């Protein structure tokens, strides 16, 4: 199955079909994946439902662990809870008797997933861990089969992303009960969850647009926003964008706040083409990169591009960054440090196996990339994650603390 890519030259945009190179370390099948959602949409699908908050307060929630061995560790943290900032360098405690092996249950061979793969492998090698992985090609049944294989073989840590959360959860629970650390992208139950504060992500995008409207458009602008409100928790991002825009004052008019028919560039193209029929004089378009790139295509197709326009997206898609680098009307993309997340997972896995504490939450900071210079710096950081790890607080806010001895403090908001 081929993957639909939307390519643009300076003079035209066109759809083309191209194959995606199959790539994995071990496992997987030869079937081509569907055109994948971006990771930011995956993260958004559950992140705002996260039960933990970033406020100060005790990280203790009662029992420090049963101490009776694997398989009897209780329900985890299943109620709202405040978490303190994570502190590196705390003393080690009891060590698990588990293989020094980290497994990555990948679901797609999309480039950003492979960047995570490479980062996990790099840190695993540095810390003396065996690294195993498999790609499910968006096939839930294969994903579950691959995770089962990992668990039967034995792992010290399991890295996982959402594909079928209901099917994955029992296996994640089994891994936790075995004493392994489960590193997840937003889905519970897990030892460490990587999440995003969707309201803050949206607010950052709205505030940046408001600043441009105030400074460059005399405080007046007709705005189109592409929401994804059928993904329940992305409603928080939606509200953040609107609140950020309001700081520009009464001259901001939101002429369309719509959800495109699909999370594809074609969906964004169709949605903005429809808007332009009623509102031909728009000034600002905001949303995820996938939709906004499609909107840029629609503006070019309709010959409606004007130099003063402001478009921005969320995700840090490569094509969006290329547009920002051209210094045209695509002014910014808000990116997330997914390669650094992979590197962190393996570092924390190694710490876990040494009995050291690891954070319970890795909260993504949205990074505004609005110039060739900021893009170059971001890409350099993601290429050299081992060095960037020394300043990880730029890209993540680490919260809470848990170790093997107190492994009952896993996150389980599904309980």
Any descriptors?
415 residues; alpha/beta; Rossmann fold; 2 domains; seven-stranded mixed β-sheet; 12 helices
Compact overview of the structure:
The chain has 415 residues and is α/β, with parallel strands linked by helices. It is 36% helix and 20% strand. The protein contains twelve helices and 17 strands.
What does this structure look like?
This protein is 36% helix and 20% strand. It has two domains: 39-195 and 338-365 and 384-409, Response regulator (Rossmann fold, 3-Layer(aba) Sandwich); 198-335, 3-Layer(aba) Sandwich (Rossmann fold). It has twelve helices and 17 strands. The protein has 415 residues and is of the alpha/beta class. Helix 2 runs parallel beside helix 10 (338-353), helix 3 runs parallel beside helix 4 (165-177) and helix 5 runs parallel beside helix 6. Helix 8 links the parallel strand 12 (284-286) and strand 13 (310-315). The strands form four sheets. A seven-stranded mixed beta sheet has the order 6-5-7-8-9-15-17, with helices on both faces. The protein has a six-stranded mixed beta sheet with strand order 11-10-12-13-14-16, with helices on both faces. Strands 1-2 form a two-stranded antiparallel sheet.
